[in-house]
Request: fold
Amino acid sequence: MHRSQIRTVLTAALGAAGLIACAQQAPPPAPAAPAPFYVKTTIRELMDAEVDPSADALWDAVAFNVTMKGATEQKPQTPEQWQAVRRSALTLIESTNLLIMDGRQIAPPDTPVAPGELDPASLQRKLDSSRARFTGFAQALRAVSLKALDAIDARDPQRLFDVGGEIDQVCEACHLVYWYPPEASGGPSKPTDSAAPKTP
Reply:
């Protein structure tokens, strides 16, 4: 073997040895990063803890009462009262993001079933087969909640009262699909995903 051939073989051998050494010294791949969110509560529990109390606060903030003594109006009067209502609107807006987080189940499996309601397993199957529709309902709730926030920031009780009716309509539309659908009481089934609310 010629010297040039020997040098070529030695160079290749040294290069391979260097690659092996580098590979042996390379740190192991980093473990996968944990999921950034921890989903603990179900949709039903989130409704009870955040959505319902926040919506109730908006509905209760403005009322027009007519009695034998005349008409009276209930509305926030002080900056502190308006700020309290505003906090409820913000909570309601942000809760719509929580409702549609991946991995959130619809209800605890041991949830008592009232007359006219489907059991949690049936509701979960309905949710799993129509996630897009549920997301549409959540986005519709977000849209009307933002309108409520605008009315609050404008200190406009009448607008807030009117938007309260829209919030009620959006909530009821969703409940008729994912809480007490007509089929649970023998009524006709609701339309498919094409009937989901559309966001602006």
The helical segments are 3-25, 43-61, 79-99, 120-128, 131-153, 157-178. The beta strands are 63-67, 70-74. The first strand starts at residue 63 and ends at 67.
